[in-house]
Design a protein that fits this description.
Blueprint (H helix, E strand, L loop, with lengths): L10 H9 L4 E8 L11 E8 L2 H13 L4 E4 L5 E3 L4 E8 L4 E4 L2 E5 L4 H10 L2 E2 L11 H7 L2 E2 L2 E2 L4 E8 L5 E6 L18 E9 L1 E2 L2 H18 L5 E5 L4 E2 L5 H5 L10 E2 L1 H7 L6 E2 L2 E3 L6 E4 L5 H19 L8 E3 L3 H7 L1
Parallel strand pairs: 2-5, 3-5, 4-21
Antiparallel strand pairs: 1-2, 6-7, 7-13, 8-14, 9-10, 11-12, 11-13, 15-20, 16-17, 18-19, 19-20
Helix pairs in contact: 3-5
Bound molecules: flavin-adenine dinucleotide (FAD).
Flavin-adenine dinucleotide (FAD) binds next to strand 3, helix 4, strand 9, strand 13 and strand 15.
């Protein structure tokens, strides 16, 4: 890794200007590890958090005008932050308004996904119960089209409001189709200057008791797989679409591996002996080959080494590229290489 350049000269001045905004927390040189579930990562020059979309938009403008880099995070449950941290401003919008109007639900990006699932289930609004137990915020869930058990958040999205940084932070609204949702993907992954503010959801009528029971069942299964204290990011790699696999690989799959047109990355990883592999304090779970956790003192360097090693072994054996579901922060130009 290249040495970290010094903090920009104007970082202190920007910090002071951000501190003058209403309802904000501004922390210079804030370690990002505590803001991530992996508990890994060095400091951001500035960490900025607010529950006010107006203050957030002002902050973004200030940061851009000052020419500093910025990154937006949610709950930090899908992030790998570099040991060197992030050279620039890490922004978090924790606006948490959540309202229901009949079958419509309006939810701001800072609401926890689980809080949204509970809110809808309690009101007998069906459609999000299988997302129980996915950590993180609604903003992060929309960004990565989070999902589980054959369903993802896109199915419920009517529209998304976002700040368009390319158009002077204009607030725009996209329909579900315009969000270009795909498996663990959305247009927001391509447009890093677009900040998700809120979503409007379209729910179905359900039975509150049944929905709560379904949620509880799923949560108990998930808690076994991902104990709440586990420092991880869930699945490291996306699953693979069967139709996109090279024909010989698809033909060699044993029966029962394909689930709803996808092949779990875990299957390929198991074949190369990933379960239980270690690097420093990072370890691949011995019961799930697509799950890496931090035993306590793990570093991003070791984590990235392990991920690259797994990718290389799968590529050599099967000729396929695993693609990360996790998102990198602070790796700059290298990140695009890592994602390949
Ligand atoms: C134990 C565990 C289990 C998991 N299980 C699942 C699962 O079953 N299914 C699943 O889909 N995921 C799963 N995940 C991954 C993760 O929880 C989801 O990806 C989640 O939606 C990320 O939300 P977050 O708020 O934590 O986002 P973060 O990790 O903070 O950020 C993820 C990405 O979203 C972007 N982002 C966040 N907020 C915004 C915003 N407002 N506007 C624009 N971009 C934004 C960030 O820039 C970043 O690139 C799991 C993770 C863990 C730790």
């Amino acid at each position: 890794m290249s040495p970290v350049p010094p903090a920009p000269d104007n970082a202190l001045e920007v910090c002071e200007r951000l501190s003058k905004l209403t309802g904000v927390t501004v922390l210079p040189n804030e370690p990002l590890a505590p803001h991530t579930r992996f508990a890994i990562g060095g400091p951001a020059d500035i960490f900025f958090e607010t529950a006010s979309p107006e203050s957030f938009a002002e902050a973004l403008k200030t940061v851009r005008e000052a020419g500093l880099n910025s990154v937006v995070i949610g709950g930090g449950s899908n992030l790998i932050v570099a040991d060197e941290g992030f050279r620039g401003v890490c922004l978090k919008l924790s606006s948490r308004r959540l309202r229901a109007f009949g079958l419509r639900v309006e939810v701001e990006c800072g609401v926890g996904l689980q809080a949204l699932v509970n809110f809808t289930a309690q009101r007998g609004l069906k459609g999000l119960e299988t997302l129980t137990g996915i950590p993180g915020s609604v903003g992060g869930a929309v960004y990565g089209n989070a999902g589980a058990y054959g369903h993802s958040i896109q199915e419920r999205i009517l529209s998304v409001h976002f700040l368009d940084g390319e158009k002077g932070d204009e607030v725009r609204e996209f329909s579900r189709a315009e969000c270009e949702f795909r498996y663990r993907d959305s247009i927001f992954k391509k447009k890093k200057d677009w900040i998700i503010l809120s979503a409007t959801l379209d729910m179905e009528t359900g039975n509150a008791v049944t929905l709560r029971e379904t949620s509880a069942r799923i949560l108990s299964t998930r808690t076994r797989k991902y104990p709440p204290s586990m420092r991880c990011a869930g699945s490291i790699f996306k699953n693979l679409i069967l139709a996109e696999l090279p024909r010989p690989v698809a033909a060699s799959l044993p029966p029962g591996v394909v689930i709803e047109g996808k092949v779990p990355s875990a299957w390929f990883l198991e074949q190369i002996g990933a379960k239980g592999m270690k690097r420093g304090d990072l370890e691949v779970a011995d019961y799930h080959a697509n799950l890496i956790f931090n035993n306590g003192e793990g570093t991003a360097k070791d984590l990235v080494f392990l991920i690259r090693d797994l990718k290389r072994r799968v590529a050599m054996r099967f000729g396929i590229d695993l693609e990360e579901e996790v998102q990198y922060v602070g790796f700059d130009a290298e990140a695009s290489q890592l994602q390949k």
